[in-house]
Amino acid sequence: MNASPHAQLNATAAPAGWRALLGWPRVRTVAIVCALFVLLFSFGWDAAMWRLVARVYGVGFALLLAFGLFEQWPRRLPPWMARWALQVAAVGVTVPLAFFVAFVLTTAAGAPPFWKTPRLESYMTFTFLGMLVAPWTALAALLRHREAKVEKLAIDFELERSELARQALDARMRLLTAQVQPHFLFNTLANVQALVEAGSPRAPELLQSLTAYLRAAVPRLDGAANTLGQELELVRAYLELMQMRMPDRLAFALHVDPAVHLLDCPPMTLLTLVENAVQHGIDPSEEGGRIDVHAERLAAGRYRLRVVDTGVGLQATGGGLGTGLAALRERLLWAYGGSATLALSEVTPHGVEARIEFSGKP
Description:
Blueprint: H1 5-11, H2 18-21, H3 24-42, H4 49-72, H5 83-105, H6 119-197, H7 203-217, H8 228-245, E1 250-256, H9 269-282, E2 289-297, E3 302-309, H10 324-336, E4 341-346, E5 352-359
Parallel strand pairs: 1-2
Antiparallel strand pairs: 2-3, 3-5, 4-5
Helix pairs in contact: 3-4, 4-5, 5-6, 6-7, 6-8, 6-10, 7-8, 8-9, 9-10
C-alpha cells in the first residue's frame, strides 16, 4: 500500500547516511558563513590570523556535525518532539560549547585560561553572534531542504499520476475494443452459416476466406498496438469474405498511400466503418454496391481514412450506421483527443462516405 504524501514527506525529511551530512551543498554553506565571520572579526584583530580562522571554522564544522547528528539520531522521537526543533536547539547549545573548546585549544601553552583574561570579552562576542546566526542558518537550511523534498514529491506524484492515467487509457481502449470484437465475429459467423445452410457450392472458398479473416483478426484481439497496415490487411480479408457471400452484389477496392502503412491506429478503427458499410449500405440494397477504402496522408502531419459505399444511404437506414459507430467515436476520442474527427455524408446519387481525420506520426 502506498504511503500518504505526509508520511512520504516525513520519511524523506532526513537524508540517510553520513555521506549526505558532509555533502558539498552543506559544506559550502558553512564555509561561506565562516568566511563572513572571519572577514567581520579581521578588522582590528591583533593576534595571529590563524587563530581566528581556526576558531571560526572549527566551530562552524562542529555545528555542522551537531546538525547532522540530530538529523539521524535518535532514530525515533517522542510524538510531541519535532526533529527540526531538536536540530535547531542542538545547534544553539553547541555554539557556546564549541567556542569554549576553540578558545581553549587556541590558547598558547603556559598562558592563563582565557576566562581570566580580557579575551573573555572576545569569547562572549563570538558566542553572542554565533547564537544569533547559527540557529537561524540551521532553520533556513531545514526549510530549503523541505522545499526541495516537496518539489521532488510533486514531480514524483505527477509522474505517477501520468502513468496511472496512461494505464487507465489503455484499459479503456481494451474494453472498447473488446466490446466491438464479438459484434464483428458474430456477424461474420452468421453470414458463413447462412451460406452453408443454403448449400452453396462455394462453401470451401468461403471457409478459406473466413480462415484468412480470422488469421488477420485473432492476433489483434487483445487490443494491443496496431498499425494501419495491419488494419488494412484485416479490412481486405473481411471484404474478401463478404464478397464470397454475395459475389454479384459487392465490389471493393483499396486505395492506400504507401506512407501510411506504419502509422499507429487503434484496433478495429477502419474495419468498423467497412463492416457498417456492408451491413447498413450494401446488404439492404437489392442491387448491392461498391465499397472504396481510402487511406491518405495530408499536409501538416494529418491523415485521412475514407470508406465510401454506393449502398442505400443514410436516409434509408434511419440516419445512422449502427451501434459500432458510437464505440468508434469514443475510441478515437481516447486515442487522439480533440485532434481526430469522424464525419458522415451522403454520396450522390446514393450511398454514404465515412471520413476520419487525425494527426499522427508514421
